[in-house]
Specification:
Layout lengths: L1 E8 L2 E10 L3 E2 L4 E7 L5 E8 L8 E4 L1 E2 L4 E6 L9 E9 L2 E4 L7 E3 L1 E4 H9 L12 E5 L2 E2 L1 E3 L1 H4 L3 E3 L2 E3 L1 E6 L3 E4 L1 E3 L3 E6 L11 E4 L4 H4 L1 E2 L3 E6 L6 E2 L10 E4 L4 E4 L1 E2 L4 E6 L5 E2 L13 E11 L2 E11 L9 E2 L8 E5 L8 E7 L4 E10 L4 E10 L5 E7 L4 E4 L3 E6 L2 E10 H14 L5 E2 L11 E7 L3 E8 L5 E10 L2 E7 L12 E9 L2 E9 L2
Parallel strand pairs: 1-4, 3-12, 32-35
Antiparallel strand pairs: 1-2, 4-8, 5-6, 5-9, 7-8, 9-10, 9-11, 12-22, 13-21, 14-22, 15-20, 16-17, 18-19, 18-21, 23-30, 24-29, 25-28, 26-27, 31-32, 31-37, 33-35, 34-36, 36-41, 37-40, 38-39, 38-41, 42-43, 43-46, 44-45, 44-47, 47-48
Length: about 525
């Protein structure tokens, strides 16, 4: 039961005030509502409706005076559903009428739901077909209460990278392991058990009140946000304050404006102050100022990253169209741009119009050691006189006006997209080629002879796994100077005449050997004392 109070001053009704709330409504049953109203010669009316209805679409019910200013009314079961129920009160005397809480407002009443209600919600939810296994997803509960996972999914094992069997992570700037789904919060969830914990939901309470206003988005930070409603909705965001809304699907991150029950979403607050989720949901009618754009999509096996875009727009609207790139606990494939200003990876970067050539560096990250990939290029409104070019920096390949590119991914892979007039694009390509070493080069150690240290330089014609070792004249390894993945270009390291245990080696001839991929080069150096 809900208790609403409307105070009067003489015969003039004043704005109503909530003095307390008691009890709750249950789906499929009539619900009792009580309003406490002081005054004389009053007519009190209850206006109510389902959560999906507006105030204008609601219904009226007369309220009966009980005693001591208490007025009662019944809400029929047809309006007490899993969608939630709202109500407001109208108190009228000879001087006029007052609504609760205002002409345009209403209050949500808590509604207790059962297992049958959850079946209805799930059918329209983010995981209508059940939770996928062996990948991370974003999930939330659209009701109040908690869902403990260990009793449903079993205990967790321990692997090299954390819990096995299943894993639940909350995120507030960093990842924290959790074991309970709590209503009104969002989580990363990976389920390897092939069980669906959401199918075990038996009851819950519709989250009443202004929940969206209570979800805080910290400044300059990613946030996970739940959709705390039991019906889907289409949102329009204020992109002067936040980036796009992202959902984590089976193939990777996807932009969306459609939110669903049990779903959770990633959003970046690019404002200098904290915001509530409610205040960034706006019905925007602003027209796009994008003049032209290029979309990039990368696919590798079952994985893809499709929402990547660069382009040109009005100078004042550049930041409006830029989007940060979300990252999950284990993204197997990811494409992002660099804007040269911030370290924050971007899913979209725009530049102001007025130039005849534009450049956008981007990176493709593959968690697989070695994988084939396709890079798909889609142009939207690019001037017919412009050409596009993608430079695969690590593999020293140039693709001119290609709609699709086959490439080999190993770890972090660097690319450059250039769009502009043919002459200027070709000039930039020539500059890039001149900076790239044509072959693997192992430089001469300097100084040589040396004491106590010497510098060894080398150039890679492509990104490779590299090892640089020092050997003595008997072929015994003395020191490893470098090992691991290195990018195309110039590198150098210093040998201080000591072995891997930090001991000073004796005078004499030593050999330094560079292994890059399948190629090997060796040179000698002389240590004098």
């Amino acid at each position: 039961m809900f208790v609403l109070a409307i105070l009067t001053d003489g015969l003039l009704a004043q704005l109503p005030v909530i003095t307390g709330v008691g009890g709750s409504l249950t789906t499929g049953q009539n619900g009792a509502v009580r309003a406490t109203v002081s005054g004389s010669n009053l007519t009190v009316t209850l206006r109510y409706g389902k959560g999906s209805q507006t105030v204008d679409e609601g219904y009226d019910a007369g309220m009966s005076f009980v005693a001591f200013g208490a007025w009662d009314a019944q809400i029929p079961a047809s309006a007490v559903t899993h969608e939630g129920t709202w109500a407001r009160v109208k108190a009228e005397n000879s001087s006029g009428a007052v609504y609760f809480p205002s002409e345009s407002g209403f209050i949500f009443l808590s509604v207790v739901m059962n297992e049958k209600d959850f079946d209805t919600i799930r059918a329209k939810g983010a995981y209508a077909g059940g939770l996928p296994s062996y990948i991370y997803i974003l999930v939330s509960l659209p009701t109040g209460g908690i869902l403990e996972l260990p009793p449903l999914l079993g205990s967790q094992g321990k692997g090299q990278e954390g819990p096995t069997g299943w894993r639940l992570l909350s995120y507030t700037g960093s990842y924290v392991d959790a074991s309970v789904l709590q209503g009104g919060k969002a989580y990363f969830f990976r389920n390897d058990t092939k069980k669906d914990p959401l199918a075990k939901l038996e009851s819950g309470t519709f989250i009443g009140g202004d929940v969206l206003a209570q979800i805080t988005l910290p400044a300059f930070q990613w946030s996970l946000v739940p959709w705390p409603r039991t019906l889907p909705a289409t949102l329009s965001l204020d992109h002067s304050k936040v980036g796009s809304l992202w959902e984590l699907g089976e193939s990777g991150w996807v932009k969306t404006n459609r939110v669903k029950p049990f779903g959770a979403y990633a959003i970046y607050n690019k404002s200098a102050s904290a915001l509530s989720f409610k205040e960034v949901i706006a019905s925007s009618t602003a027209k796009s100022s994008v003049i032209w754009s290029v979309q990039l999509k990368v696919t590798s096996g079952a994985h893809e990253d499709q929402d990547n875009e660069v382009g040109v727009c009005d100078a004042l609207e550049v930041k409006q169209h830029e989007d940060p790139e979300p990252a999950g606990p284990a993204d197997p494939l990811r494409l992002y741009f660099s804007d040269g200003v911030s370290d924050l990876p971007k899913a979209s970067v725009y530049q102001p119009s007025g130039s005849s050539v534009y450049q956008w560096p981007f990176t493709v990250v593959s968690k697989h050691v070695d994988s084939d990939a396709r890079l798909i290029v889609t142009k939207n409104g690019v001037p017919p006189s412009y050409v596009s070019c993608i430079v695969d920096i690590d593999n020293q390949s140039v693709f001119l006006d290609a709609a699709e590119i086959q490439c080999r991914l190993v770890g972090n892979n660097r690319f450059l997209l250039v769009v502009g007039s043919s002459d200027q694009v070709n000039e930039i390509i020539d500059e890039i080629k001149n900076r790239m070493p044509a072959t693997l080069i192992l430089g001469d150690a300097y100084p040589n002879p040396f004491n106590p240290m010497t510098t060894i330089s080398f150039q890679l014609s492509r990104s490779e796994t590299v090892t640089l070792d020092i050997y003595n004249t008997m072929g015994q390894k003395v020191r490893t100077l470098a090992t691991g993945w290195m990018e195309t270009g110039h590198h150098q390291t210093v040998w201080n005449g000591r072995d891997d245990r930090g001991r000073q080696v004796t005078s004499g001839i030593y050999f330094y050997r560079l292994i890059a991929g399948r190629a090997t080069k060796t040179k000698k150096v002389l240590l004098l004392k």
